[in-house]
Amino acid sequence: MRPTIVSNGQAQLISASLCLLLAGGIGCTPADPAALPPGTPEPDRYLFELGSTLVEDEDWGKAQTVFRRLVDVYPQSPYRFDAKLAIGDSFLGQGGLASLVQAVNEFQEFLRFFPTHPRAAYAQLKIGVAYSEGMLGSDRDQTSTKGAVEAFELFFELYPDSDLTDEARKWHRTARDRLSEADFRVGEFYFDAGWYPGAIIRMRALLADDPAYTDKDAVYFVLAESLTIINEGEEALPYFNQLIDDYGDSVYAERARGRIAEIETQIGKR
């Protein structure tokens, strides 16, 4: 018996018929993750709980679809505000540059529409977090880092009494350290290249702009060492002493102590 030859048109018709027969097309077209079961009594609550479950499962795309349906279709829902924030959180969880940009957009949009909402501080915090997640190394472009610093500083200005302040301070310190590290690397480059006036200017500016910089011992050392090399030992001495006082276990401490002894000896000979 010869096999039946099916034309392309017939094959397409058969395929389409099978899709209709198989549970209303399941397996042939993607199911709508935000579709409501018939008779759902609280559809907005159902969508919010479904979206939250999808976030827990890290199914970011479906979670965003579900939360967005809630926001768009149920404007009077008490879950709408949290759903809008959850969209931003899902983009944060998804990661990647494009998703982080989307996260910032979602949180900024929340603030534009609901600037006085009790969770506005959370949205502002998350803008800073999204920028922070996109920060590059100190030797690369610092646009995201600057965005993070600005977002957190605006948070402190607008929400000084927020219970999220401690968390914001930690994120802010990380971002501020990255900016200061970038400045330090420039000054260190000047130092290594033998352009000590440039290193001195850069390190002094760093101390003035960010006195809480975490790795300030390195700044003290490069600044003091540069001053010493250009025969400004007396001006360098306070920085070496500050290094020892504040960072006694620093990798620069032993060299700083040696320089202090040298400078004090020179001063004593005058």
Describe the structure.
With 270 residues, the chain is mostly helical. The protein is 71% helix and 0% strand. It has helices spanning 8-21, 43-56, 60-73, 80-94, 97-113, 120-133, 143-158, 165-193, 196-209, 216-229, 233-246, 253-268.
What is the topological layout?
Blueprint (H helix, E strand, L loop, with lengths): L7 H14 L21 H14 L3 H14 L6 H15 L2 H17 L6 H14 L9 H16 L6 H29 L2 H14 L6 H14 L3 H14 L6 H16 L2
Count the DSSP helices.
12
**Average pLDDT reading:** 90
Shape descriptor: elongated
Terminal Cα span: 116 Å
Query: What is the oligomeric state here?
Result: single chain
Could you give a short account of the major beta sheet? none
The Cα radius of gyration reads: 30 Å
List keywords for this structure.
single chain; mainly alpha; disordered N terminus; 71% helix; 270 residues; elongated
Quick structural gist:
Helices cover 71% and strands 0% of the residues. It is an all-alpha fold and 270 residues long.
